[in-house]
Amino acid sequence: MVTRRIFIFLLINTVFSQFDWIDDGAPIRQGQHIEWQRTAGSGEPGEIIFAWSDTRDSMRDVYVQKIDAQGNKLWGENGVAVTTAYGRQEDPLLVGDDNGGAFIIWIDYRNEPDTKGDVYAQHVLSDGSLVWSLEGQPIVVKEGAQRNPNMCKDGNGGAYIIWKDFTVGQYEHVYATHISADNQIIKPGEGVPIMTNDSHHNGISLEIAGLGEAAMAWVDDRNGNLDIFGQRMLADHENDTINTLWSTPEEGGKAICDSEGDQNYAKITYASGCCGTEGITVATWQDDRNQNFDIYMQYLWVNGDPYFQDYPLGLPLTDGLTSSQTKPRVKADDSGAYVVWYSDQNGNSDIYAQKILASQDNPIQWNENGLAICTAQDAQTGARLTVSGEGGVYFTWQDDRNGGDEADVYIQHISSDNVLTMPDNGLVISNESLIQKSPVVRNDGSGNAFVLWEDGRRGSGAIFTQHLNTNGQLTLSENGMEIYYGVDGKSDNIKSERINDSDILLYWEDRENGVNSTYNFGKIVSNDYGITYQNAISVPNASLSENPAQLNAEVKKVGDNLFMGFLQDNFQAGVDPFEGYSQYFQILDLPNLNLVGDSNGTWLNPTDFFQYDFISEFGRDLDLLVNDDNTLFYFTSLSEFFAGPDIYVRKVGIDGQIYWDAPKNLTNDPASDNFVRNVFNTPSGGAFIIFDKIGSGNYGNITIMSPEGENLQGFPKRVCDVDSNQFIEDAVDVGVGIFVIWRDNRQEGGSDIYGQLFDYDGNAMGNPDGIGIATYDNDQTNSKITYHDTSNEVLVCWEDYESGIDYNLACSTVDLSDLEVNDIFGRPTYEIAIGQGDQINVDTYKAENGNYMIVWEDSRNNSDENLQTHTDIYYQEINTQGEYIYGDNGIAVCDAYHIQTEPKISLYSKSDSQQSYVIYWTDLRSTGKDLLYNIYGQSITHEFQLSVEDDFPIELSLNSIYPNPFNPEVNISFYNPKSDKISINIYDLNGKLVETIYNNQLSNGSHTFTWNAQSYSSGIYVVRLKSEKSIISSKISLMK
Fold this sequence. Notes:
The chain is an all-beta fold. The chain contains two helices and 79 strands. Strands 3, 4, 68, 69 and 70 form a five-stranded antiparallel β-sheet that branches. Strands 17, 18, 19, 20 and 21 form a five-stranded antiparallel β-sheet that branches. Strand 78 (1019-1026) and strand 79 (1031-1038) form a beta hairpin. The protein starts with a strand and ends with a strand. Residues 1-17 and 945-953 have low confidence and may be disordered.
């Protein structure tokens, strides 16, 4: 029997650490960020199908939805995922399959970086089910860029797809494939070359052409100027090829218009039933043969020859105008062709259109030079059109007539007898606040129409729709019905405040309500938060104030409430004095985060806002300090009467009481700019303030403030008297005073890290010139500090540019007993990360078990192929023996796509048997065309055995689990004090047994077993070690 006799808590200091949450972190704030590509097609009569991409699952994926005329969502509340493959999928295009379903294609970056890309496809059936898996079907997967895909239906339930291959030299080649109605694909993964001549094929328009064929028109530069060329093709599944009909691929198509001057912006469509035959197409383009932009068009026979005998190079739709007519689009049916374009003949961008019959004698049906569809003030843009199916046509557009930052959606209909059936200049579809844009219109198969658009009325983007008849009677709600809303906007400046032993508040600035507003949102996180995660829709956040212009917030827990100080951007808020920043605070209750008092916050200086409320753009500093009596000191850098900012303090109670008649000026130096950096409580009830003073130089300063808000005699003063620039970087309370570190330029040609320990009275305890912590060649910068109470030392970590090539990460400890730096032969105590790329933005934390925790931003995985920055979050621990827990250079916390930046770490949950720490960062993995800033986090737990024993036998002791995280093998080491029956089982987080490693009699002594998880997926598992009298469990993380 092995026993230990002890009379205090025993901490077995073998600690088990692992990442607790899902791989690459759990989203704290994840925007959906819709990208709307104006792609839609018809389902069954009275239905419309449309597609978009969004980032609800962190990376960009493609979704599709079908609705009916009553607005019912037929494919689920939030649409159907077309693909959720790894990487980014975007820019979907959709056509109906004539059976109530749709074909969708998209650009896919799962195999290559986003300077390249492949093309994938999916077929969604009428009931919303997928023909292929969520991986999608590869259309072209080749090394190098495959871009600019286009698609059209074939009239037989299938679809044609084209794209450009940019890997073949100076001129891109055009490839094609075909998906049949029974989902057979011609040459999947590679396609068939259909244009291989030496010219560019720009802006290819692709449409159904009848007879099971497809037609194309594009802008071509083979003749030196810009001409319009075309091609027609027919799928041949029997021979697994695409046949070109107007020329060979090497000839590269047939000229539609090669007149003098430039022809541009070609569009083509199918004129079903025109001229009493099938296969007639219509092309239109922008033409400057007359040294002015005009609009031309042509009907084309099946062989590509022009229809108009008197106009073989195109029928002019505008002529003789001194203004520009640009960017035409065309649709047609058996009653004629309709062309719409932009005209600036009235000084703005207006919408004009023309109807053209296939007639040699009288083709033009509406006014000479076009019929004005909308000539309202300001610009009308983004016009789209569709035939009604009953001889008429619908036009929709984005309209700026209401000015400012507004944009609305309008529509017009012209009947088969050429009558405008809606109000002059159009019927408003949506004139809600902010921007409605990018509308598309489709007929519903019954003569009526759907309009879909991107809508910003709620600040972030949404997809809205409206259904109406030819007379403008609306089926759905006024201003449209929301189909799907996705939070976007930038989120940054994330901070934390611990609530209790099991929860932490993470909070940040968020622009999800639009670029003209800034809110602070927050989320209370506990240690089970990130184990499971569905998508961004399941991650709600709480608004910490309804003020629409909150900046630089700081939150502190005071008693049973939260106090948030923030600066109101007066220009953004639209209030006096219309510039600068005003000081506000908001009180919230716990744990529900309900707003207490004015929901827009309380103004700190309402009696004299000009003198005490003007904060310059460069003085947006705010710090809070909680006192023992549940009051706070509220520090800001104020620019009184436009002088350089001074540091002011105000005293506020958690009950909202504002003390003192006016803020107290702690620096009183209008000739300098003074910026508060750190504040700490002092034993006397006052404050220790650390700040930068910028004037003829930059000098780090401190001041000691009394409880009444007055400087003590002899303060402020500099952190050192050396004639060099000092930039305050961090500080920490070490129990006997404050240890301050700064960046110092006393060494010519570089910056170094210096520090000083001050007692609470402001007396320097070390070398008056500062303690040289990192004084190597080149730059040492961006340092962070943490305090180890047991070892009586501080750890200082910094970005080190000694190599002159990359920033590496180094740390040194300073012994507080003698203020000596514990370097090793003049080198840093720890070289945390050295090698390729930069290691920057470090944060440090001293764990409850005595280990140092270090997290940073790391670009070691960046490659030139990405042509953009790729940074990850890395982590290291140093144990109490000075050893690295995770080997040289640390381990990846998150190496997701694109940029992860500015990590921080904090304790957020503790109990007798474990402590959990949250690492959180700004995350750009959702970035596509726009930079998208979200917030992610990961949890790491230190588990240990804590017991009180008095002659109790120790049945089992778990020595170590390593490596953890692991891939694919993990070693489980333990001590068995006596021969006993031992079982070692692996469970998932639902408690399901995954595998039994051992279940038999085992001799006493130390043992190690290995689990190989090669056949299991990444995730968190639980190891359970059991004897006859004891059970020990610990989490392990499989990271593939």
